[in-house]
Design brief:
Length: 288
């Protein structure tokens, strides 16, 4: 009887676990769709911003804005966009491998997401900042992060800001990527202007005030902030996709294990019944 009780206890435990993983799978699926919607919603803003940048081509090529300056002095700041929670498969492990292989050993590190910060510290990396951002990626949360990046770059503490994040390809595939956030190069801005700007017919009379140089100085922080937001949304979509797939796999494994345990329980129960019948038969023969 003890063996039967243990098997029933295991079946109940695995069934409860499968219910939890199923619920987490559904929550991750809903959050993933939300992250995709937020990413798509920003495209109108990007198009309007690119439309302005297209008319600042001559000023952009001069590269006079503060966030476009190339400096020799200063350190590299590496921004690692990871997760605050686990249960998302190998997502963080793959990103950590990319960071360790690609980042300079003497670079400062900013973790957006708390999961990888302890590991990076154990590996001897200089983790200077750790931020946590909600799934909504709100402007209030991003403002202090961007201020640290902008102030550190403009004051000369950092001469380069690199971002490591998970690029969302599809539900099953997320790839670690590296992107330079600062300094912003004229090539990046002109490429955005060409790819995302609206056709000329949509805005034929485009007047610029104040001067193009002053306008670029105002728009460039918006562009960099928006780029960081998009990378965070990519990371959030990747996180929820990886978690949904991991929880789906866990649920299926739990169902398989329940089937195996049920079969084992039935075999043990059948053996017990057979033994009881043999005992009854033996006792009856002994009484004859």
């Amino acid at each position: 009887m003890g063996n039967l009780r243990d098997i029933k206890r295991r079946i109940k435990s695995v069934r409860n676990t499968s219910q939890i993983t199923k619920a987490m799978q559904m929550v991750a699926s809903a959050k993933m769709r939300r992250a995709q919607e937020l990413a798509l919603r920003g495209r109108d803003y990007i198009s309007a911003l690119a439309n302005v940048l297209r008319h600042l081509g001559a000023v952009i090529e001069q590269g006079g804005a503060s966030l476009m300056q190339t400096r020799e002095q200063g350190r590299t700041l590496v921004v690692v966009i990871n997760t605050d929670k686990g249960l998302c498969g190998a997502l963080n492990a793959n990103l950590l491998r990319e960071v360790i292989n690609e980042m300079p050993t003497d670079a400062d590190v900013m973790c957006i997401g708390t999961k990888l910060a302890p590991t990076l510290r154990r590996l001897g990396r200089q983790v200077e900042y750790v931020f946590s951002v909600s799934d909504a990626v709100g402007e209030v949360e991003l403002k202090p992060i961007f201020e640290v990046l902008r102030r550190g770059f403009e004051e000369g503490r950092y001469n380069r800001v690199e971002v490591f994040y998970q690029k969302f390809i599809n539900v099953m595939v997320q790839r670690p990527q590296r992107r330079t956030l600062l300094p912003t190069t004229p090539g990046d801005l002109l490429r955005v202007a060409e790819q995302d700007a609206l056709p000329d017919s949509d805005n034929p009379n485009f007047l610029l005030e104040p001067t193009p140089a002053d306008l670029l100085a105002s728009i460039l922080p918006l562009y960099v902030s928006n780029l960081l937001t998009q990378l965070l949304l990519e990371g959030k979509a990747s996180e929820q996709s990886a978690r949904m797939v991991a929880m789906k796999s866990a649920t299926e494994n739990a169902k398989t294990l329940i089937g195996e345990l049920t079969l084992e329980y039935n075999k043990a129960r059948q053996t017990q019944i057979t033994n009881e019948l043999l005992e009854i038969t033996t006792a009856m023969k002994a009484m004859e």
